[in-house]
Write a structure and sequence with these properties.
The complex is a heterotrimer of chains A (117), B (96) and C (125). With 117 residues, chain A is mostly helical. Chain A has helices spanning 33-42, 49-65, 71-82, 89-95, 100-107, and strands at residues 8-12, 15-19. Chain A is globular, with a radius of gyration of 13 Å. By secondary structure, chain C is an alpha/beta fold. Chains in contact: A-C, B-C. Chain A binds chain C through residues 61, 64-67, 69-73, 76-77, 114-116, and chain C through 30, 33-34, 36-37, 39, 66, 70-71, 73-74, 77-79.
């Protein structure tokens, strides 16, 4: 669910980006790759090519279905785009620890997945 | 047996048709809230396909002043009867 | 009327409301998505005005309210592919099955009852 409540600002290069209480973008239009890198840095993640290809899958998913996927459809979408080797929960858990559907949606500048624990 | 529960009057909502379409040969239909209007002799024809398996909740009939106007083919149950019907059913499906 | 073969499953969501006008359709689809996200085998039955939810060409509301077409397309990503509709509802509205966005199988009453009987939990929206 997109939230309109501003909790804090994240400084990205020379401008600030509003985040909601759970760290998702308040304005989805604020997203740039630099924003993703800044969000990732906050959690001690460095984005590699493997992260970026998942972020691209997520952004394509959102553009097509107007919603962020829960874990199962995310695994399916990744499998369809990147092949069955990558379309696995373990691969996603390694890249986006703890809750891949949520963490990856946040870094991809999407709303929090609604159908997730 | 599935207990179907309908809370809309057949004279103001067509949902009764969907409830009937969803009923198997053993299933029962309980009329509650505004649904009890379906127990009137003028309305009960809508349910003629399920003779003997049509119930109405007494408390709602009383609240609507319809208890004395109920068609003889309708089996009237109180809340305890409602509970008993639910216990006999594999599951319940609500139509509203 | 023949009884078609219908699948059994965990959850059957019956959708009886058209897009817009109320939030019933969206809430029903959300319930189906949540159940599927947790690994339940979900089937959908479109009944009454709910069959209009399947119509091709539907879009956002005049005030920009979100439509349901993208969500319908997304069902397959949640492995919700067991889609049915009440044939008489479609007939009553005078709509042909060719006008629908998704391939839902039309069912006659005995099969609708079998579908309801074959699912552990039935939710109507």
């Amino acid at each position: 669910m997109a939230s309109t409540e501003i909790d804090r600002f994240l400084w990205v290069e020379t401008h600030r980006v509003a985040l909601d209480p759970e760290g998702y973008l308040v304005d989805l239009g604020d997203w740039t790759p630099a924003v993703a890198r800044a969000m990732a840095a906050e959690e001690g993640l460095e984005l590699t090519d493997e992260h970026w290809e998942i972020i691209t899958v997520l952004r394509d998913f959102y553009a097509r279905y107007e919603a962020s996927p829960a874990m199962r459809p995310l695994v399916k979408a990744v499998g369809q785009s990147l092949g069955s080797e990558k379309g696995r929960s373990l691969h996603l858990l390694r890249l986006f620890p703890e809750s891949p559907a949520r963490v990856a949606a946040r870094l991809a500048g999407l709303p929090k997945p609604a159908n997730c624990l | 047996m599935i207990l179907h529960i309908l809370n809309r009057s057949p004279s103001s909502s067509l949902v009764y048709r969907e409830a009937l379409a969803g009923m198997g040969p053993e299933d029962r239909l309980l009329l509650v809230e505004d649904g009890v209007q379906g127990a009137l002799p003028s309305q009960v024809r809508h349910f003629e396909g399920i003779g003997g398996r049509l119930f109405a909740l007494r408390e709602d009939l009383v609240a609507h002043g319809l208890e004395g106007h109920c068609d003889a083919s309708v089996q009237v149950v109180d809340v305890d009867g409602f509970v008993a019907l639910t216990e006999e059913a594999d599951k319940t499906v609500s139509w509203f | 009327m023949q009884t078609a073969t219908v699948p059994a499953g965990d959850v059957l969501v019956i959708l009886r409301h058209p897009p817009h006008g109320s939030s019933w359709l969206r809430e029903g689809l959300d319930a189906a998505l949540v159940a599927a996200a947790f690994g339940q085998a979900v089937s959908l039955l479109f009944q009454g005005d709910g069959v209009l939810a399947l119509l091709q060409g539907q879009g956002p509301g005049p005030l920009g309210q979100k439509g349901t077409s993208a969500t319908l397309d997304m069902l397959a990503m949640y492995d919700i592919e067991s889609l049915f509709l009440d044939a008489s509802s479609l007939t009553r509205l005078g709509i042909s099955i060719d006008s629908l966005q998704l391939p839902a199988s039309p069912l006659e009453p005995p099969s609708i009852a079998a579908l309801i009987g074959g699912h552990r939990l039935v939710l109507t929206f």
